[in-house]
Structures are given as structure tokens and as C-alpha cells.
């Protein structure tokens, strides 16, 4: 058994059996297996590619097996998915994909299932990828289901993305967005302000003044050499943090709060910016394991940042009216990060939205209530879903009335970006900025800035 295939298969099993996150588990598994660069790349492609297109492969398997994939033993089903990916979407020889996948079935499900797996995979290998897509097109019950099968997105996600694009008058970009979601993102680094520098061979990113990319090598080596002043961070995440720290000059003595800090990437940017401007920063993360990640993330910044582990909805009651800048990087569906979280699109359901939206609204209200007069909250989600973005901000504005005003986040981003950003104004007339993978090469971050009105003004 080729080690790369074994690591990829074990990742699939952990994702489906234990709700593991592939982007966290796979690098550790590659390290434990001692895979070289080529095998590590193969394991990553096999695991991520299979997870990204899981829904499409399940539709193929349903035809080839003549049964609902839900009725197939999970250990066998993951081997079939892995085999289908190699047959339909890679240059791996079909016979090798079939043989190694059947061997995985023998090892993990027993010899009795090998005949079934062999028959299903040979049936898949009999037709070309184009022939399979034509067959799935014919069997689709709607145009959206057809599009979802072609681009491996659940129909409800596809429709939510279409509505978000249409809100900017860009509904015709849907195909480009779906394609971008299925491409592995380039590795982007952030050099923390004051503390970090761009390596001499680095290429600056298009927008974030902190960001850069390298032509090759291992990110871990660059990070270790910097002492933590350089880290891997999506450019959209960098811009979201900078929108809060740079919408106006920092006054020494300002109090800042990162209300939903885990895992700590944006907290580190805030900490470095607070250090440079003479501000004080606090962080909060209710999940202990994620709070530990926050502490690790800010360890390289020589600034004391207390990290609390409280419910963000009540954490601000400790100092109401005291903060000048608050980041609410709210828990969300994560539909904006499908490139780097390949299994996320299949885990989330539309029924998740109401509970998340309630939590998001409560966190935003808590943050607004904790602002000093003239203070600003950045409401950020790694999701473009309108129910998690535009609706949350619009409802907050209605609840708070003349007590808050919205700043133009798009203008703020344009003012700090290295090059002009394509940020069309949304139809609702808000100041919200929406980043996109296909347009900006970032995660689909939504950024809104709300200011607590000073009664003395």
C-alpha cells in the first residue's frame, strides 16, 4: 500500500467517523508518516480532492453500485470515493486506482467486501469523466442540481452564493466562484507589523500590506526562522483585522477587544498593531482548546494580552462602555473558506443558519453595548451568506437606531490596500465589504464597521 494513499484514506475516515478537520489533521498525519515532498503532495491532493468533490463522487457511486451510498459500509464507501477521485480527476492509472482501493477495502472492511468494491470501481473506470458528467446531467432533477453536481456544491450552498453575488449585481460570476472553491489556495504569509519582515525573495500580495507569497519551500521553515513574526494567514483575514486597526489613527491608551478570538490569527495582527500604536488589547475565546491556540498565536508579540474563556455574549458585561475597538469574528457556516476546508460544504445544512444567526446577532449587540462613545466594532464572518452578513448588520442598525452609524468598510479597505479592490456597492446601500476567492484570491470574508455614536457630537 502506497503510504500517500494510506494517509489520504485514514484522513477520510477520521473526517467522516470523528468529525475531524482535514486541514488540521492531514499535516500531522503526513509528518507522522514521514512522507517526502512528492508523497505529501499526493496525499494532500487525494484527501482534499476526494473531500471537495464528495457529493459528485457519491452520485457516480450510486449509479455504479446501483444503491444509495448511505447503504454502503462507511469504510468501503470512503475507499470507493478515493478510487473514484483517482479514476475521474487525476492522472493515476485506472488499474492502480482500482487495485489499491480494493486493497484498502480488504484491510479495513474485510475480504468479503472486496468483490463488491472491485466491481463498482471497474464500472466507474469503464466510462470517461465526460461520459459520467453527461449521465449525471441527465439524471439531475433541476438546473441547480446539475450545476451542483458539476461543481461539487450542495444545492443550498450554491443558491446562497448566487444570492450573495446578486446582491452586488454580480450574479453572472457564480460559475467562476464555484470553480475557485475547488482550487487549492496559494499559501499566503503575513509579516506582523513592526515585528516581521518580508523575505528578500518574497512576492507581495495584491492587497494586504502585511502579505507575501514565496515560490516554494516549506512554510514551517519560514515561520520558525522568523520566531513567530511571520505566519501563514489568508489575505482576507489580514484585511479584516486591518480594517479595524486602520480605519482611523490609533490614539495611545485605546482599549481593544477581540471577542471571538480563536484560533488567533487575527488576534496576532491586532496585538502587533496595538503594540505599534500604544493600545491595550484583550482577547476572549470560550473554547479552552481554541483559547490555547490564541495564546500560542500571540506569544511572539511582546505585549501582555489577557485571554479570557467566557461566553462572548456576557464577557463584555465586565466593562460596558469601555472599548474603543472591538472585533467580532463571529462563528459562522464557513462557506467563505471552502477552498481550505474541503469537507465543510457537506457538513453544513441550511437548518444551521437560524441558530448561528441568533448567536451572531447577540454577539454583535454585546459588542456594540461595550463600546465607548465613538468606538467602532468590526463585524466579520468567513461566510458571504446574506443571513449571516447583511441581515445581521441591518437588524442591528434597526435595533440600535440613531445610537450607531455604519462606516464605509469598502473605502477603508481601499485606503489600506496595495492595489485597488473590486468591491461593488451592495444593493442595500450598506458600507459592507465582501471579499471573494474568484475575484480577490482570498476567502470570502464579509467586513462591516459600526460606530457607537457619541451623544456629545
Topology at a glance:
Elements: H1 3-18, H2 22-33, H3 37-52, H4 54-65, H5 74-89, H6 94-109, H7 114-126, H8 129-139, H9 143-151, H10 155-166, H11 174-181, E1 189-191, E2 203-204, E3 211-213, H12 219-226, E4 230-232, H13 235-245, E5 255-258, H14 265-277, E6 280-284, H15 288-298, E7 307-308, H16 312-315, E8 323-329, H17 344-347, H18 353-369, E9 371-381, H19 390-400, E10 404-407, H20 409-416, E11 433-434, H21 437-440, E12 446-452
Parallel strand pairs: 5-6, 5-8, 6-7, 8-9
Antiparallel strand pairs: 1-3, 1-4, 2-3, 9-12, 10-12, 11-12
Q: What attributes characterize this protein structure?
A:
457 residues; alpha/beta; 8-stranded mixed β-sheet; 4-stranded antiparallel β-sheet; 21 helices
- The rounded Rg comes to 23 Å
E-strand count: 12
CA-based shape: globular
- Beta-strand percentage range: 5-15%
> What count of helical segments does DSSP give?
21
Mean pLDDT: 95
Low-confidence stretches: none
Task: Note down, in words, how this protein is organized.
The chain is an alpha/beta fold and 457 residues long. The protein has 21 helices and 12 strands. It has helices at 3-18, 22-33, 37-52, 54-65, 74-89, 94-109, 114-126, 129-139, 143-151, 155-166, 174-181, 219-226, 235-245, 265-277, 288-298, 312-315, 344-347, 353-369, 390-400, 409-416, 437-440, and strands spanning 189-191, 203-204, 211-213, 230-232, 255-258, 280-284, 307-308, 323-329, 371-381, 404-407, 433-434, 446-452. α15 links the parallel β6 and β7. α1 packs across α5, α4 (54-65) crosses α5 and α4 crosses α7 (114-126). The protein is globular and about 75 Å long. The protein starts with a helix and ends in a 5-residue tail after the last strand.
